[in-house]
Amino acid sequence: MNITEVARRAGVSRSTVSYALSGNRPVSDTTRARIQSVIDELGYRPNASARALANGRTRSLGLVFPPASSHYTDMQLEFIGSVAEAAAAAEHDVLLSASGDGDRALSRLVEERRVDGVIMMEIRLHDERVDYLLDAGFPFVTIGRIADPERTRWVDLDHSALTAACVRQLAGLGHRTIAFVNRSERLVRAGYESAHRGLDGFECAAQEHGVVTRAYRCDDDAAAGEALIERILAEQPRTTAIVTVNEAALGGLYRGLAKAGLSVPRDFSITGIAASRWAEAVTPQLTAADVPAHRMGLLAVDLLLELIENPDSPPRHVLLDQPVSLRASAGAAPAR
Amino acid sequence: MNITEVARRAGVSRSTVSYALSGNRPVSDTTRARIQSVIDELGYRPNASARALANGRTRSLGLVFPPASSHYTDMQLEFIGSVAEAAAAAEHDVLLSASGDGDRALSRLVEERRVDGVIMMEIRLHDERVDYLLDAGFPFVTIGRIADPERTRWVDLDHSALTAACVRQLAGLGHRTIAFVNRSERLVRAGYESAHRGLDGFECAAQEHGVVTRAYRCDDDAAAGEALIERILAEQPRTTAIVTVNEAALGGLYRGLAKAGLSVPRDFSITGIAASRWAEAVTPQLTAADVPAHRMGLLAVDLLLELIENPDSPPRHVLLDQPVSLRASAGAAPAR
DNA sequence: TTGAAAGCGCTACCAC
DNA sequence: GTGGTAGCGCTTTCAA
Question: HTH lacI-type domain: which residues (chains A, B) (predicted)?
Answer without folding.
Answer: 1-55
